[in-house]
């Protein structure tokens, strides 16, 4: 069963708003402007009817810290931006929750953007490049947008004071981002700590909203990369996170973890798309331009109209006389 996130679509269909309540295994994705709330009791979801329709959105990969979150005083996580085979149409998110504050990178057909969500005590004074389309956060522009595959982004959460001073006894939670562009840490948001959570959603997609929100197809040649995590101890010391027992992993097709190196300090891993997520190339078929298939452990896209796929012309090993019908887009797992 997929882990679900609650989203609320605002009036712009190219800007799906998000409102995730952690600890919810299955929640509502609501079409309409953000307004109202959802709550949980004993693992059940109490629904408040909003918008026009209810649909499900999904976290298909999650990595949850198995230690005592209350014994941490901060969390740092670094991602490498992946390549989406269908980047011109894909919608997807790579991010994390620490307590009640979410952040990460958000992909639309317009590109990649830093985002945050869940700042419930007001967004005044937060990063000026970030909009507030979701009420308690939004996507960010300027230097916090336009990310390219291979770029690296670091998010840092710290217990802090109202003056944004790191303090292991502070009553608030401060969130920062480092774009690794020389600008250093940039303040994103600050909030009171409420729900106790510490997990990453290595991929979130919105495919159930409708066909206009295409599910990301992630090349295993340029996968999502989790490059490092650190936690801050009660003494204020940052330490690398590593070890097979440090996280609990959840994965569901069509995505899969690969190249886990949990013994390293810090640990690293990757994630991408399974080959079985797309149809396998077959002979004797009609393929229209742009059709995606898998064959020989690779993604392929039809470059032209193929009225009949010849058995001697598979994408990965065509005979010398075959026309150049297919373009390789990357590998799959």
From TrEMBL:
The keyword NAD does not apply. GO terms for cellular component: extracellular region. GO terms for biological process: carbohydrate metabolic process. Keywords: Hydrolase. SMART domains: ChtBD3. Residues 278-324 form the Chitin-binding type-3 domain. Gene3D superfamilies: Carbohydrate-binding module superfamily 5/12. InterPro entries: CBM5/12, CBM_sf_5/12. One of its GO terms (molecular function) is hydrolase activity, hydrolyzing O-glycosyl compounds. This is Chitin-binding type-3 domain-containing protein. It comes from Sorangium cellulosum.
